[in-house]
């Protein structure tokens, strides 16, 4: 499932970034380019963090920004931005992020397979660390495929 | 049967993941409970015996009456197991 969405075109690697808004904006670009989401969707993701805080950090070092299907999703999509140096989502050290994974869901339930696989992948701290240390999108794809074969 | 409601802002990201994990854990623990997920706005009007979500989101539901539990790490099954055991275990 997620290997269909996370590929050379949707995985980006960068050393550092200025702030969390830029991180979400950059992470979302592949999905804007491949017409999965609109600019409105990107703005809604940023607004909801401004309103509710960094609740999108699902596990240490990993953020899963997303909004609702009706807020600008054209088709299902996932993209991943890997930052070598963590970006802060608040002044709290619990809110440092190295992996930004943008989720675009088309309805309330069809992305359940994607979420299950992301939960298995990111629930293992070793996978998160390996993805942060990776030097190419191929390395990240290998980590994902290895995990998918386990479960 | 006890009702558990997992809440996140959109009702389709983290709450969905936690719901799936909670169902698995409750089965393992042999605890019977109904688990659903929803967005924050609907969560405010829906009754449940226990509300679970990320600390940032779930704090919006604290009113002194609701039974609310916030997760630090949403993918940490140990943390979730502990919450479910504390609130629903006999």
Largest interface, with counts of residues having CB < 8 Å to the other chain, equals:
A-B, 27 and 22 residues
Q: Sketch the topology of chain A as an H/E string, one letter per element.
A: HEHHEEEEHHH
> Percent range for helical residues of chain B?
40-55%
| Oligomeric grouping of the chains | heterodimer
Largest sheet of chain A: 5 strands, mixed
Broad CATH class of chain A: Alpha Beta
CATH homologous superfamily identity of chain A = Mannitol-specific EII, Chain A
Reported by name, the CATH topology of chain A is: Mannitol-specific EII, Chain A
Tally of contiguous helical segments of chain A: 6
Described by the principal axes of the CA atoms, the overall outline of chain A is globular
Question: What's the gyration radius of chain A in Å?
Answer: 14 Å
Order of helices and strands of chain B: EHEHEHEH
Counting DSSP E segments of at least 2 residues, the number of strands of chain B comes to 4
What is the percent of helical residues of chain A?
40-55%
How far the N terminus sits from the C terminus of chain B, by CA atoms, comes to: 13 Å
Please count the helical segments of chain B.
Answer: 4
For the biggest β-sheet of chain B, the strand order reads 2-1-3-4
Strand order of the largest sheet of chain A: 1-4-5-3-2
Q: What's the number of structural domains of chain A?
A: 1
Question: What portion of the residues of chain B fall into strands of 2 or more residues?
Answer: 25-35%
Descriptive account of the structure:
The complex is a heterodimer of chains A (151) and B (90). Chain A is of the alpha/beta class. Chain A is 44% helix and 21% strand. Chain A starts with a helix and ends with a helix. Chain B has a single domain, classed as Rossmann fold. Chains A and B meet through strand 2 and helix 4 of A and helix 1 of B.
